[in-house]
Design brief:
This protein has five helices and 14 strands. By secondary structure, it is of the alpha+beta class. The termini are far apart.
Length: about 250
C-alpha cells in the first residue's frame, strides 16, 4: 500500500512539471514594452547673420518629415516652368505663376519673366562668413516678394564641411529630415524678430554628388511670425519639384 502511494505521488509531480506556463504570466510577459529606438542627427551649429531675437520653431522634431513625391508631375505643361543646372545636376519644376527673381548656372524653360542673376546674393540663409557657394535660383510669389524660394549650392571645402550646420539659435531637438527625390535633407526652421517685423526661414540642407545643396523657404512680414507657416505652403510646389538629374 505504501508503494502505491509513493508511485502516485511521483506521477503527480511529473505531471505538474509538464504543465504549460500560466496564461496570466504569458499575458504579463507580452505586455512588457521593448526599449525605445533612439534617433540621432548630424551637423553642428553656426552663428546667424540675421539681426534681432531668434526663436526656435516648434515644428519638426526628431521624427522624419513627409517625403516629397511630386517632382512637379502634377503640373500641366502649360502651367510649369523648369530650371535646370547641368553643372550642379539639379532641376526645379515650379508653377509658371511664380516670379523668377534671379537665376544662375543653369537654364530656364517656360518662365514668363526671368530676372538677371544676382551675383551678390548669399548662396544660402545663415551663410555667415561662408560665401564659397552660388545662388542658383530665387522664386517669389507674385505680388508678395516677401515670400521666397531660394536654391544654392557649394563645392567649396567650407560649404561641404558645414553643409548641415544649424544657426546657434536653433534648438537641437527641433531638427528633422525630409527626402527630396530620394536624397535626405536636414530640415530646420527659425523665426527672427526685430522692430521691423519677422523673418521665418525653413531650411533644407544636404550633401550629394560632392556638393552641398541649400534650399530656403523665406517669409517676411509684420508682427512676430503669425501665419508664416501657412504662407510658406504657397512655395510647397517648388519644393516638391526638386529633382536630381544624375
Amino acid at each position: 500500500m505504501r508503494y502505491s502511494i509513493a508511485i502516485m505521488a511521483a506521477g503527480t509531480l511529473l505531471l505538474a512539471g509538464c504543465q504549460p506556463p500560466d496564461d496570466d504570466k504569458q499575458e504579463q510577459d507580452a505586455a512588457v514594452p521593448h526599449p525605445p529606438i533612439e534617433e540621432t542627427g548630424d551637423g553642428g551649429q553656426v552663428g546667424s547673420q540675421g539681426g534681432g531675437e531668434a526663436s526656435p520653431a516648434t515644428a519638426g522634431g526628431t521624427a522624419d518629415a513627409p517625403s516629397a513625391q511630386g517632382h512637379g508631375e502634377d503640373l500641366n505643361a502649360d502651367q510649369a516652368a523648369v530650371y535646370q543646372s547641368s553643372d550642379y545636376r539639379i532641376q526645379v519644376t515650379f508653377p509658371r505663376e511664380l516670379e523668377v527673381v534671379n537665376h544662375a548656372a543653369g537654364e530656364l524653360e517656360g518662365a514668363d519673366n526671368a530676372g538677371q542673376a544676382d551675383q551678390d546674393a548669399a548662396w544660402k540663409a545663415f551663410a555667415g562668413d561662408d560665401m564659397d557657394g552660388q545662388r542658383l535660383l530665387t522664386l517669389a510669389v507674385p505680388g508678395d516678394r516677401d515670400l521666397r524660394f531660394q536654391l544654392g549650392a557649394s563645392r567649396g571645402t567650407q560649404g561641404l564641411s558645414h553643409c548641415k550646420d544649424q544657426p546657434s539659435e536653433q534648438a537641437g531637438d527641433t531638427e528633422a529630415t525630409r527626402s527630396l527625390d530620394g536624397v535626405p535633407f536636414r530640415r530646420f526652421e527659425i523665426t527672427e524678430t526685430d522692430d521691423q517685423g519677422f523673418r521665418t526661414v525653413q531650411s533644407y540642407r544636404a550633401t550629394y554628388g560632392e556638393a552641398c545643396y541649400a534650399i530656403d523657404l523665406i517669409a517676411r512680414g509684420d508682427g512676430e511670425g503669425e501665419g508664416a507657416a501657412e504662407a510658406l505652403t504657397r512655395l510647397q510646389t517648388a519644393l516638391d519639384g526638386v529633382a536630381f538629374t544624375e
